[in-house]
Amino acid sequence: MYFFTADEHYAHSNIIKYCDRPFKYIDEMDAALIRNHNEVVRGEDTTIHAGDFCFTKDFDTVQRKYIDKLNGAHIFLVGSHDYWLKGKNYNQIYEKRIDKQLVVVCHYAMRVWPASHYNSWLLYGHSHGNLAPMGKQHDVGVDNNNFYPVSFDCIRETMRNRPDNAGLIKGKR
After folding, report:
1. How far is CA 157 from the centre of its chain?
2. How do strand 121-124 and strand 93-98 relate by DSSP bridges?
């Protein structure tokens, strides 16, 4: 199964006040995010992290303190605070066909994206729940999803109630 998330901001103490997160301390937030992740993600699952995973600059620290504690496989996209990925091979955008549905993931919301005119989905972060979706979009950031990753099945249900994307071309791609 696939899960999607963004904007965890591990090790970023100021995010608690910036986003009015319900935690007193960074250690409390980090532990809750790890616990919530592991509550829904299993070892055979894959999580796509749409940026701003961790505020720490050292890759080894991020690996040891966070990634190694999270269930499943992980794909990391770069966000605006992912300095720990510097010098690593990373992407800004991810595309995957899941159950015949093209899913596009990026840290930033876009007005158009690959195959948006065929109703592909865009999953994004960065806005911390403060940007309304347009068409088949969903903010997968933790602030918008009760501090949990979101499953593909849950996103499919959400998209059923969303309007078509702007410029929709009827037919198959």
Report:
1. 17
2. unpaired
Torsion of CA 106, 142, 4, 116, to 10 degrees: -40
The residue assigned the tokens 């994307």 is 165
Q: What are phi and psi of 48, to 5 degrees?
A: -100, 120
What tens-digit pLDDT sequence spans the chain (173 residues)?
A: 999 999 999 999 899 999 999 999 999 999 999 999 999 999 999 999 999 999 999 999 999 999 999 999 999 999 998 999 988 888 999 999 999 999 999 999 999 999 999 999 999 999 999 999 999 999 999 999 999 999 999 999 999 999 999 999 976 55
DSSP string, 27-68: HHHHHHHHHHHHHH--TT-EEEEES--BS-S-HHHHHHHTGG
Running DSSP on this structure, what letter comes out for residue 117?
G
Q: Which two tokens stand for residue 54?
A: 């961790």
Q: Which domains does the chain have, with CATH numbers?
A: 2-91+137-160 (3.60.21.10)
